[in-house]
Amino acid sequence: MWESYKRGFKTFLQLEKSLSNNSVEAYLRDLDKLTDYLQLSETSKNPQEIEASDLQNFLQWINELELSSTSQTRIVSGIRAFYKYCLLEDIVKKDPSQLIEAPKTKRSLPDVLSPEEIDAIICQIDLSKPEGERNKAILEILYSCGLRVSEVVALRISQLHLDVGYIRVIGKGDKERLVPVGGEATKYLNIYLNHSRNKITAVPGNEDIVFLNRRGKKLTRVMVFHIIKELTAGAGIQKTVSPHTFRHSFATHLIEGGANLRAVQEMLGHENITTTEIYTHLDRDFLRKTLEKYHPSFNKGK
User: Fold this and answer.
1) How far is 80 from 7, CA to CA, in rounded Å?
2) Which residues pair with 65 in a beta bridge?
3) In which domain, by residue range, is 159 found?
4) Active-site residue among 7, 45, 94, 172?
5) What CATH number is associated with residue 79?
6) Is 244 among the residues known to form the active site?
7) Is-catalytic flag, 270?
8) Domain shared by 139 and 83, yes or no
9) From the candidates 33, 134, 218, 247, which is the catalytic residue?
10) Catalytic residue flag (residue 247)
11) Is 172 noted as a catalytic residue in this protein?
12) Does 166 qualify as catalytic in the annotation?
């Protein structure tokens, strides 16, 4: 349904705007992200039916995919350019993109899952399916190691040092860090590698990638997001859950348990500790109990 609109938009950019091939392809990739979202959310709307609320939900979705603020701003620009074209061609009567704002660079804190909720989501995985062992290993790694979804999909077999309990992670800016990996994550990684991964023929260039789809290619971030969305719905959890929610829960649970903030900073791969401090939004009961236990004057006079 959208392909004819994309072809018209491409011609418009090439002939009317005289843009370079690279610029045209960038605009089309931005539009592809919108149609990917519509497909994943099972929203079969054409451009005339799209409302500002649909676009705002789309922007929330790309925000949860951990795209940079620069990328998000560019995508907004691409969607607005598409709707300008639609107005000129009388495809739409009004422009829903005029009412949207790009997600702010400072994002609101995501929901935190309790350990019980994380278990409920993981329990939704059907281990009888070929992808079941892979999906279980992915979720265990997301929560047990606090990795970014981009780090999980890029993880290589050569980066796994499970015999000594560590994985080598290449994070933002190609910075490398060692992250401890726990017993559960190690167990399910080994099960996946030995029972499922070794039965998949990797396409050239993907031989060292840990998590593959059934065609032997590296998983996309969008696919991991979709997997988690389906499992969360199956578990009946009403919170907004994305791959980043597992990373956020990892850090929050560590800090609530008394972990040193700098140790958490190191495991998360944050260059600046002020970034890690957003994970210290501990509930008031926890803070009160900490003061009661450790502060010498807190209970005086009671």
Assistant:
1) 17
2) none
3) 115-288
4) 172
5) 1.10.150.130
6) yes
7) yes
8) no
9) 247
10) yes
11) yes
12) no
Residue of 33, 134, 136, 148 marked catalytic? 148
Total domain count, the chain: 2
293 found inside a domain: no
Is 161 an annotated catalytic residue?
no
- Give yes or no: residues 139 and 258 share one domain: yes
52-64 and 69-88 helices cross at what angle (nearest 10)? 150
Residue 228 lies in a domain: yes
Residue 249 belongs to some domain of the structure: yes
The answer to whether 259 and 290 have CB atoms below 8 angstroms apart is no
Last residue of a domain, one of 99, 129, 155: 99
* pLDDT by position in tens, the chain (length 302): 789 999 999 998 988 888 888 889 999 998 999 998 888 877 778 899 998 888 988 888 887 776 777 788 888 889 999 999 999 889 999 899 887 776 655 445 667 899 999 999 999 999 988 899 999 999 999 998 889 898 999 999 999 999 988 899 888 777 888 888 888 899 999 999 999 999 999 999 999 999 999 999 999 888 999 999 999 999 999 988 989 889 888 888 887 777 777 777 777 777 666 666 666 654 445 555 656 666 665 555 44
Residue 43 lies in a domain: yes
Q: Which residues partner with 209 through β-bridges?
A: 156
Are the CB atoms for 93 and 49 separated by under 8 Å?
no
- pTM here is 0.60
Which of these three, 99, 134, 169, is where a domain ends?
Answer: 99
